[in-house]
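Researcher: Please generate the 3D structure of the following complex. Treat every line as part of one assembly.
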Amino acid sequence: MDLAYYPGCTLKTRAKNFETSALAVMSALGINLVELPRWNCCGTVYSLAEDDLIHHVAAVRNLIRVKEQGKNKVVTLCAFCYNTLKRANLVMKDSPDKRFAINTFMDEEPDYAGEVETVHLLQVLRDDVGWEKIAGRVKHPLKGLKIAGYYGCTLLRPQSVAIDSVERPTILQDLLKALGSTAVDFPFATECCGAFQIVNNRDIITERTSAIFGSAVKNGVEAIAVSCPLCEYNLRQTQSSTKQPQSGVPAMPTLYFTQLMALAFGLDSAVCGFEENSPETRTWLKSKRLIS
Amino acid sequence: MNNKPFIKRALVIGGGIAGIQAALDIADGGYEVILVERSPSIGGHMIQYAEVFPTLDCPQCIMTPKMVEIAQHPNVKLMTYAVVQKVNGSAGNFEVEIFQKARKVDVKKCTGCGTCWQKCPEKVSSEFNAGMAKRTTVYIPFPQAVPAKPVIDTEHCRYIHYQQYMAGKREGKKPPECRICEKLCPVGAIDWEQRDEIIKEKVGAIVVATGFDLMPLSRIPEYTDDADVLNGIQFERLLSPSGPTAGVVMRPSDGKTPKEVVFISCCGSRDPEHGVPYCSRVCCMYLAKQALLYKHAVPDGQAYIFYIDTRSTGKGYEEFIQRVVSDGVLYLRGKVSRVFREGDKLSVYGADTLSGKRVEIAADLVVLGMAVVPSDGTKGLLTKLGIAFDEAGFVVESHTKFRPLETSVPGIFVAGMAQGAKDIPDSVAQGSGAAGRVLTLFAQSASADKALAVV
Amino acid sequence: MRVELSSKKLRSDFVKKIAELSGQNLYLCYQCGKCSAGCPMGFAMDILPNQIVRLVQLGLEEDIANSKTVWLCASCLTCTARCPRGVDLSRVMEALRLLTLRKNKNYVEPSKIPPETVADLPQIALVSGFRKLTS
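Model: Done. Output below.
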C-alpha cells in the first residue's frame, strides 16, 4: 500500500532518525510512505488569531499538493506538522469566509475546500495496520522493558484534532504493548514540555522536563517513547542539567516510537540513527542488548 | 373519553422520597395509589445518605416510618422490581402496562428471615453502597428495605447461570448448580419457575418521580480513575454508620485514615463543555456537610473544599455553611485542573483565585461533587408517557411559574429531581404538591371536562 | 491604589481588539481558575491566566503589558481543553501577544540567540518560537 507522506523540515534535518526508522518499519509492514513532491514548511504552528489567514497558506499549499496526487489522505510523523495541517484543513472545510479569502489569495493554486485528511503515523498503525498485525511482525519482543509513551500536546489538543482521548490517551501504550514491552502510564504523559519556549528560556524547559522525568522515575519508567521531534529535543537537551545531583533526576533514555518498532521488528539498527539520540539512550540500549 | 368513567386511582412512578411523599398523600386523601419502583426496595437515594443537611438528621431514622407506612397503607399498592413500560389514554383513563420482573421469590411464603442472603455464596457490587461493598445475588438492598423480601439477581445467580449453561445459552466453564438458597429456605419460598409478568392497570392520574443519578466520574477524565477518588454518594456510604465501614472513614485503597481530604464542587455542573450547563443545587450543601462529618470522624484531619460560588439559599443553609467554614474546613475558591496518583497520595492541582495562587495538595482522598442528571432511562420513560423534557432529560413543566407540577400532558404530574435538581425539602414539597394536584383532579372529576380544565 | 473603572474603559478599543483577534467572548469566563490550576507554564508566570482574562474584562491593558505571562504561554491548549465555559484561552494569549508584535516589537531578539543554539535547535522550535515571540 502507498500512502502520501508529508515529512516536514525537522525530519529532514534534526530528526532524520525519526524518518529513517519510520520508513523502514512501515516498509516492513508493507506500506510505502511516498514523499510528496514540492512540499514546503507547514508553518509549524497553527495561527490562533482570527484575522491571521496568511499563516494558513503554507499548510494549505501542502494539502493541495496531496490532492494533486489524487489522494485524500496524507500521513505525518512530526506531531507539530500533524496539528498545523489538520487544523488548517478544518478552517478550509468549516469556515466558508476564510476558505474564500485563502483561495482568492492563492489564485495560482486550484481552489481547495478541505478534502484532504491529515493523519499521524500512530493512527495509521492503529487504524489501518492494527496492533495484532504489528505484534505479529515482532521478532525481538521488548520483553520486560518498562517504557512509557509521552504524548506531548499537539497530537491531543485541541479536541477537534485529537488522535485519541484528550486526557487519557492509550495509543502509544497500546503500540508499546504490541511490541512486547511493559507499557507504563505516568501522569505527566500529556503534560507540555514547554515547546518553543526553548528558543528563549532553557531554564523553563528544564523545569518542565525535570517534572516529566521525575514523574516517570516515580512510576518505574526506564525509557520514554516520543512522537514529537520538539519533545524529543527538549527532553534530550535538558537532560544534562536535570542530571545534576541536586535535581535527583537520573538520565532517562528517550526514543522515537518508530525506533523501538525497528528494534522489535529486528531491523538493521542503522535505520534507527541512534547516534542522534542522547548518549544515555545508547548506553541503555546497549545495557539491554538491543544494540551492540 | 367523556363516556368513560373517570378513574380515581393514581400511579406514582419512582419510590424515592418525592414518590413516597406523593403516594402517601394521595393514599391519605382517600384514593388508591400504585407505587412502582424499579429497584427491589423503595427509599431512593435519600436512604443512602449518612446524615442530611442542614439539621444532620439520620435519613434512615426519619425515612423508615414513611417507608413502612407505604408498605402497610391500605390504599397503597406497592410494586417494586417493576417498571412502567407502556402508557395509553388520557387524564382520567390511563391504561398502564407494568413490567414486573420476576423476583424468583414467593413473597407470600417468604418471611424475610434472611437465611438465603446470609448464605448465598455469589457476591457482586452493591448498588446501595454505590459499589463500595458487595452484596449477595439473592438480596435485599439494605436492612430497612421495603418490602423486606429478597429478589434473586438473575444476571449474577449461579444457578441461573447453570441453567443457561445446560440449555446451551452460556459459554465457558460449567457453573456450579448451587441452589443453596433453595436448600436452606425454611418455607420453600425460592421459586425458580416464577416468570416476568406484564400487569395492566387503569389509573386516572400519574406522578413522575423518577429521580436522579450522578454523572459518571469518567466524564471528567482529568480527575483520575482511582479507588480513593469517590463521588458524593460513595462518600456518604463511607460516612454512614450503616455503610461498609460502619461509619469509620478510611481510604478504600488501603484502609488508612485519610488525613487530607479534598472535596471538589461543580464536577460536570456549570460546565457546558464537558458536562451540563445547570447548577446541581445540592453539591455545595452536601460537600460542606460531608466535610463537617469528616471533621467529626477524623478531628485531626484537614478538609479542603474547592468551590466557584457557594450556593446556600435554603432555609438555614447559609448558617450551616458558615458553621462549616468556622469549624476549620478550608474553602479554596477555584477549580481543580487535575487529580492524579503519585505514589501513596493523590496530587490535586487547583487554584485559589482569592489569593491568586496555584495550589497543590497531596490528598489521601478526593470527593467529587458530580453533577446530578435525570436517572438512567428517564428519557425513554418520558417518551413513553408522551411528556416534554428538556435537553438534559428533565421534565418540562406546563408553566414554570404557575403550573410547576403539571407536565405537558394533562393528568401527568412531576415531583422531585425528575423536574430538575433540588434538595430533599423541595422534593418532599413537590411530592405533596403533585399529590394535591391529583386530589384536586379527582375531586373535580364529577365532570371530566371540568376536571381537565383544571389540569 | 484604586483602579478606576468606567464604561469607557470596559468598552475600550483594547477590549474590542482582543475579542476580535481571539474570536472569544471573554465574558463567558466565570473565573474558576481551572486554566491557572493546570497551566504547565504557570509556575513562571507573574500573573495567572485567569487573572489575564479578568484584566481584559476590566480593560486594564497596562497591567497585562507589564506582565510576562502572555510570553510564557506555550500554546499547549491544556486550558482550552479543560475550560468549563469553552473559552479558548490560547487564542486570547495569542491576541495579546499580537497586540505587541504588530507594533514591530520583538519579545525575543533572534540576533541575540547564539548561532550554535540556532544550529542545534530543530526547525519546528525556531519557526514556532519566532512565530510566537517575534514580529
